[in-house]
Specification:
Elements (H helix, E strand, L loop, with lengths): L5 H14 L5 E5 L6 H11 L4 E7 L2 H10 L5 E8 L4 H10 L8 E3 L6 H4 L5 E3 L3 E6 L7 H4 L3 E4 L4 H9 L7 H10 L9 H12 L4 H8 L4 H18 L4 E3 L2 E3 L1
Parallel strand pairs: 1-6, 1-7, 2-3, 3-6
Antiparallel strand pairs: 4-5, 8-9
Helix pairs in contact: 3-4, 9-10
Length: about 250
């Protein structure tokens, strides 16, 4: 997947920096369905990097167990993992991503006998680099993300169109033409994933426009704001007809 966009070029460079251990942590945040996970996992597989991929949910103790079991991997990827906002998890991530006295030591001290049953030590040296993938950055992660590189994957409508144009092998031209004509910055769920789904529907001779109206609905608050902005622009400039942010005002 070759995309001519600075954010994706930075992602490629950052994954290389994770591989050669120039950085300990890489955080990818924003715009669901824009290839953050796909690009990351494809790189790790292509470079034959020894990694662990974790998503869904983890309690603090299970998160500690994941770190312990992954302590000698090359990379561990946490993809929209529920539970990561827990202060105990935050504390473990801070330790896992920062070197102190030439080591990264992660600790979990508890009076419970669960750790003994799980054969977990109270602390261990962590030698693995971390990739965090979020659709929305969680409050409290600033002390962690500033220990490495963070890439913001939020894009405006025009940026998305340019990205989609680089994906002609997987996004049908008729789908892209529909998006250019009918969508704008107010459109929700506008992503690579949604356009690939629509392309597959068209390929299977389904009425993709019928599906597109449901999948690519406008956010009403954003739509109203765009219309108000357009009307104000018309009033100030005197133009009766124009095109702004994909919205026609007569």
């Amino acid at each position: 997947m070759k995309i001519n966009n600075e954010k994706y070029k930075l992602l490629s460079e950052s994954l290389g920096a994770i591989k050669d251990k120039s950085i300990n942590i890489l955080t990818l945040c924003g715009s669901p369905g824009m290839g953050k996970t796909h690009t990351t996992l494809e790189y790790l597989k292509e470079k034959e990097i020894n990694y662990t991929y974790i998503n869904s949910y983890a309690t603090p103790l299970s998160f500690y167990e994941i770190l312990y079991n992954s302590r000698n991997k090359d990379v561990v990827v946490f993809d929209d993992l529920m539970g990561v906002s827990n202060p105990m998890v935050l504390a473990m991530l801070k330790s896992a991503c920062w070197i102190s006295d030439n080591k990264r030591i992660v600790s979990y001290h508890s009076t419970s006998d669960k750790m003994d049953k799980m054969e977990l030590p109270p602390s261990f040296e962590f030698n693995t680099n971390v990739i965090l993938i979020f659709n929305q950055l969680i409050t409290g992660y600033e002390p962690i993300t500033n220990r490495g590189v963070t890439i913001d994957f939020d894009f405006d409508f025009d940026e998305k169109i340019k990205i989609f144009e680089d994906l002609k092998d997987v996004i049908d031209k008729d789908i892209l033409d529909y998006v250019k004509l009918n969508c704008n910055d107010a459109t929700t769920n506008l992503s690579m994933r949604s356009l690939v789904i629509l392309s597959d529907l068209k390929k299977n001779k389904r009425d993709f426009k019928l599906f597109a109206k449901e999948i690519l609905k406008p956010d009403e608050s954003k739509r109203l704001l765009i219309e108000m902005t357009c009307k104000e622009w018309v009033t100030k400039t005197g133009f009766r007809e124009h095109l702004i942010l994909g919205t026609n005002i007569n």
